[in-house]
Amino acid sequence: MESVKKPETFQLALSKQEEKIRKRRKTIAGIKTNKLLYLMILPGILYFVIFKYLPMGGLVIAFQDYQPYLGILGSPWVGFKHFIRLFTEPTFFTLLRNTLILFGLNIFVFFPMPIVLSLLLNEVTNKRLKNGIQTIIYIPHFMSWVIIVSITYVFLNVDGGVLNELFANVGLGKISFLTSPDWTRTVYIGQVIWKELGWSTIIYLSAITAVDTQLYEAAEMDGAGRLRKTWQAIRPVIITLLILKIGQTLDLGFEHMYLLLNSLNRSVAEIFDTYIYTAGLKNGQLSFSTSMGLFKGVVGLFMVVIANKIAKKLGEDGVY
Length: 320
Hints:
Layout: H1 8-33, H2 35-53, H3 71-74, H4 81-88, H5 90-110, H6 112-122, H7 127-138, H8 145-156, H9 162-169, H10 181-210, H11 213-221, H12 226-246, H13 255-260, H14 266-269, H15 272-282, H16 286-313
Helix pairs in contact: 4-16, 5-10, 6-10, 7-10, 10-12, 12-16, 15-16
């Protein structure tokens, strides 16, 4: 009796199932082999799950007139009421303008500076000098914004500030750096540079040192200079970080600007992050502040997608 042949579709399904089993076994074997590495990233995964993904369920209150004593299930639905209010209030355009200007300072003033500093540090041949410079410029990153702003206050305060006292001693007038709207943005970007400039060079220096020397030799044979070779080494990193930075278009962080904010510079220092705190926690407008936060997130996602597509069209790898 001739053996009955299995249908081709059944054989195909069986082969796919076997392939899935092999991949699953390979994955499990890889996890067992590198279990210590997975344990190291576990705290980071838990952080994002607990503080980033799980709270996203609360975004639903942006479409409700949320009342804490009623809860999410008991609060009435109001649709896009809070979004309409957000886009029609006069403060929206002020917040948008202030946020975009400060974001522009971050992109066009701060972002290129770690790149330039990394290129300069890479040219330092004395290892002891190089390590000393890196240690000094890394220190501010580990200070909180409270300390950074406090030190700035000591230097720039009108009453007893070191810099203003120096101006007074040489016959110049004192400048209200901390309260004048004309100086608020300058002080802001100066603090960002002071705190994050050194720390931001780490990834660029790592990219430079991680490049295979054979690639340098090949580029040199093609006539590339030292600066061009270094630029080619860190260009993919620059593109990736720039795309991620663009995703923070409306997300500048709360703590820094809240510490700089006062009644005299509010017209230029009030941004979405500080307004969300004022509206949500101080005034109890939880649904309205949540709608503003959701708007920020959607804009950030949209900007990342657009920036990534542009990078792809220009021949870069992008972030995905």
